[in-house]
Specification:
The protein is an alpha/beta fold. The termini are close together. It is built from 8 helices and 11 strands. The strands form 2 sheets. The protein has a 9-stranded mixed β-sheet with strand order 2-1-3-4-11-10-9-6-7, sandwiched between helices. Strands 5-8 form a two-stranded antiparallel ribbon. Helix content is 27%, strand content 21%. It has helices at 20-30, 39-44, 71-80, 82-90, 100-108, 174-182, 237-240, 245-258, and strands at residues 8-13, 33-38, 54-56, 95-98, 121-124, 132-139, 159-164, 168-171, 186-190, 203-207, 213-216. Helix 1 packs across helix 8 (245-258) and helix 3 crosses helix 5. It has one domain: Class I glutamine amidotransferase (GATase) domain (Rossmann fold), CATH 3.40.50.880.
Length: 265
């Protein structure tokens, strides 16, 4: 029996997106074959999603974040390719949406997609009114998310980089927040003393009810090498013997795809 080749990771690109190369590198290092595809090509040929084993919606400033962050890209996705994305999730394809991707996923309805409900969330302007670009401390509560499951985070490395002006997570009402908590859909939280934007419940990232789709404001795809860590020269050899948490997330997703021993013959 011949086992399948490296799983294919479709990475959506669009004008203004600037983290597609990092996302491709993350999938590559995790053991997948990245396939960047422009949204216009995908709109003309949505069947390209049929062969995707993983999907990434990268960060950046899609279409210049005109009107609002991610608004135009989200509108194009809703009218052109949303059915293909829903079909991919239905067949078990993990999807990651960092930063602008998170904003897009929320506006398309891919997140939070609470089962049996129409609850809504939004990513609003940071409470400081400023663009924030730095590393923040985060936590990974127990959740159903396949990307953050059982992450190995050595002491002192519980950091992820952020770069956003509209990342303040808010729910439409308290029932939505409670549903996210109850359903295990809160995948990433800011440390209580290091919240960069005033997010409700310190939420930095959520998953959908399947656990396959992860949206988060931090950029795990920018934390694939220890040399990216802000104090990497002070890290010991034991710590650097582990994979950085950003890379571990992508390995989790790739392992999830290949765990069923899918094969080509």
């Amino acid at each position: 029996m011949e086992y399948m080749a490296r799983p294919t990771a479709l990475v959506l690109t669009a004008p203004g997106i600037n983290c597609d190369a990092e996302l491709c590198e993350a999938f590559d290092l995790a053991g997948a074959e990245p396939m960047p595809v422009h949204i216009n090509r995908l709109s003309r040929n949505p069947q390209l999603m049929d062969d995707a084993d993983l999907i990434g919606l990268p960060g950046g400033f899609s279409y210049g974040d005109a009107i609002a962050a991610g608004r135009i890209c989200a509108a194009l996705i809703r009218t052109k390719i949303i059915d293909g994305l829903h079909a991919a999730i239905a067949r078990g394809v993990p999807m990651i949406a960092p930063c602008n991707g998170f904003q897009i996923a929320v506006q398309t309805g891919l997140l939070p997609n609470i089962e049996g409900g129409t609850s809504r969330v939004a990513l609003l302007r940071n409470d400081s009114g400023r663009f924030v670009d730095r590393w923040v401390r985060v936590q990974y509560p127990e959740s159903r998310c396949v990307w953050t499951k059982d992450l190995d985070v050595p002491d002192g490395t519980d950091l992820l980089p952020i770069a956003h002006g509209e990342g303040r997570f808010m729910c439409d009402n308290s029932d939505t927040m409670q549903a996210l908590e109850t359903n295990g859909q809160i995948a990433v939280r800011y440390a209580a003393d290091d919240d960069p934007n005033g997010s409700q419940g310190l939420v930095a990232g959520i998953c959908d009810h399947t656990g396959l789709v992860l949206g988060l404001m931090p950029h795990p795809e920018r934390y694939l090498h220890w040399t990216s860590h802000p104090t990497w020269t002070a890290l010991g050899d034991t710590t650097k013997g582990h994979a950085p948490v950003g890379l571990s997330m992508f390995r989790n997703a790739v392992n999830h795809v290949t765990a069923g021993e899918r094969c080509t013959a």
